[in-house]
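Milestone M4 deliverable, item 7.
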Amino acid sequence: MDEIEARILAQRFEGGASIDAISTLMKREGLPYSSVGSISQILSRLGDLLPNTLENKADPQLLVFADDEIFAKSSPILITVDPVSSAILSIELATTRTAEQWEQHLNRIVGNGFLPQQLTSDAGTAIKAAHGNILTDIPWQLDTFHGVAHRLGDWDRRLEKSAYAAIETVHKREKTLASAKSDAVIEKRLILCFKADEKEQQAIDCYDDFHYLYRYLIHQLKSFDSEGCLRQRDQAEENMTIALELMASLPHKKIAKEALLIKKTLPNLLTYFDDAIIAFEKCQKLTTNKEALQALILAWQWNKDVIKSKVTARKHHAIEQRQFYLELAELFVGDKAKMIELKESIYAELDQIIQASSMVECINSLLRPYLNTSKNQVTQAFLNTFMFYHNHRRYHAGKRKGKTPMELLTGKAQKEDWIVLLQKEVKETLLTA
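Output delivered:
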């Protein structure tokens, strides 16, 4: 039976196969328990015996809690992740997403031995209320992506599209003017051309002004300046305040309202600067080579842009800049192997600077295909198994390559495969039941 369970788990989670597909494959090999009903029962039984909240059996561990909500159709899934290790601390299929539900969710995590040193999430009413009710003294970092980039990035794209549309209208007006024959038609079309020119200039000016201020705001959110020096929080807040006020003065009422709303959130948007100070001080203790340190800091910062950039040209530019500063760091250190060792140590410290709950979005992108193959008919048993799989699976690429989330979380090597560990946990649960 263990081998059948292992096959089903591997095909469902590693292969991403639907239950129907697993059934087809198993029937082709003439295996027992190959009906859709049997496979569903096996997966449900295993999931029901797994917890939905991770347990820390050692001393209480301080972590950043990244909280968010994922939806399977209309059903909310509450999830808390440690963004550094990427481990899921708790995942819960909820009937509601009230403050009370979130309070229970967070209390279970704390009761299982994980303590928040910082909270990060979007400005969702229920999440924010829960934080304020039970974790009052814990610093809250408003997700900078949802708080700035997402809200203003949409307007940047809209204004750019409007500017190009206005330019196209001018071209059309010029063509119709060129085809006019009578003086009356020429005069009428000339007036339309003047109006189109005026709207074109307004659209271009609005986009240019907004785009400059938007990029400036994004730049101020970087922990380090272009020289690799730590940016001062009060200076960043002052610069962003001025930029948002200028943005609010643009001839666009909706953008003005958005800018003023963001301005009110600035104190919670910049909480991560306190962590940046601590991380920078730890980096300074790793090396006395100031030039190499600054180069590696800039390489780390450009690497973040590589990960976040969705525009191809911007991503390629970030890749080039990252490579430039890595080569510069190697030059300052004088030895590639030593530079790589120093880089890994510095990156590990800088990765403690958490600006957003984007790790939850990554979990969502991993979870979504499974929800799609089950037509969003999600159960808590499935989520329990998914959490176990994700926490104990080994990364094959990226900065966490070769590690599992649990190894990164606990610092202890994971010697066995996730399926073996899952089956052991299920058997221990049955023995202690």
